[in-house]
Design a protein that fits this description.
- The structure holds 2 protein chains of 2 kinds.
- Chain A has strands at residues 9-13, 18-23, 32-38, 45-50, 55-56, 61-64, 70-75, 84-91, 104-109.
- Chain A is mostly beta strands.
- Chain A has a 5-stranded mixed β-sheet, with no helix packed on it. A 4-stranded antiparallel β-sheet of chain A has the order 2-7-6-5, with no helix packed on it.
- In chain A, a hairpin with a 6-residue loop joins strand 3 and strand 4.
- Chain A is globular, with a radius of gyration of 13 Å.
- Chain B is built from no helices and 11 strands.
- Chain B has strands at residues 4-7, 10-13, 19-25, 31-37, 43-49, 56-57, 64-66, 76-78, 87-94, 104-105, 109-113.
- In chain B, strands 2, 4, 5, 6, 9, 10 and 11 form a 7-stranded mixed β-sheet that branches. In chain B, strands 1-3-8-7 form a 4-stranded antiparallel β-sheet, with no helix packed on it.
- In chain B, a hairpin with a 5-residue loop joins strand 4 and strand 5 (43-49).
- The chains are: A mainly beta, B mainly beta.
Chain lengths: 110, 114
């Protein structure tokens, strides 16, 4: 299974944009890029996913590099409720398996 | 809409005892999953099921068994619990067993094995 690399932690100020990077240099052509987040004492929550093109939804945007070896999750205006662990995950198109790494802990300062 | 429910919320269990963690979803999803999360780490897949009547092994299946008798329920059984199985267990489901589908997670069961 292909792996991802993320910074252990990041900080942001409230109301500012946040760019969370992820490297996945061994991604295969059919792997989807998923982002989930986990708030304290809760189960993971889906944020966004994509294959090749950039994606937008009400929560965030996903920017995927042209060679697909990296991606960036963009939170347009961070709020205190966005403080969480953010996981970048590659999902094999053949199965629904998600292999979680340790994620990036995002701290949002007021 | 309930989504995914898990029971119990938490449990303290003596080593050697048998324990079944329950998971039920009301979204008629075909695929279901069990993960464990140890302190400070990401989730690891234990077992999964792409459709009722079928199951498969994840990253860390040893010491656990599952069954999928119907679409809604996916119980996880520890036949003889050991302290290393102390963890938080999350159940999840998705419409289909492919990675293009979003997974929905339950609230988790905190299990302590003494």
């Amino acid at each position: 299974d292909a792996k991802t690399t993320q910074p252990n932690s990041m900080e942001s100020n409230e109301e500012e944009p946040v760019h969370l990077p992820c490297n996945h240099s061994t991604i295969s052509g059919t792997d989807y890029i998923h982002w989930y987040r986990q708030l304290p004492s809760q189960g993971p929550e889906y944020v966004i996913h994509g294959l090749t093109s950039n994606v937008n939804n009400r929560m965030a945007s996903l920017a995927i590099a042209e060679d697909r070896k990296s991606s960036t999750l963009i939170l347009h205006r961070a709020t205190l409720r966005d403080a969480a662990v953010y996981y970048c995950i590659l999902g094999s198109s053949n199965t629904g398996k998600l292999i979680f790494g340790q994620g990036t802990t995002l701290q949002v300062k007021p | 809409i309930a989504g995914i429910t898990q029971a119990p919320t938490s449990q303290i269990l003596a080593a050697g005892r048998r324990m079944t963690l329950r998971c039920t979803q009301d979204m008629r999803h075909n695929a279901m999953y069990w993960y464990r999360q140890d302190l400070g780490l990401g989730l690891r897949l234990i077992h999964y099921s792409n459709t009722a009547g079928t199951t498969g092994k994840g990253e860390v299946p040893d010491g656990y068994s599952v069954s999928r008798a119907n679409t809604d329920d996916f119980p996880l059984t520890l036949a003889s619990a050991v302290p290393s199985q102390t963890s938080v267990y999350f159940c999840a489901s998705s419409e289909a067993g492919t990675s293009s589908n979003e997974q929905f997670f339950g609230p988790g069961t905190r299990l302590t094995v003494l």
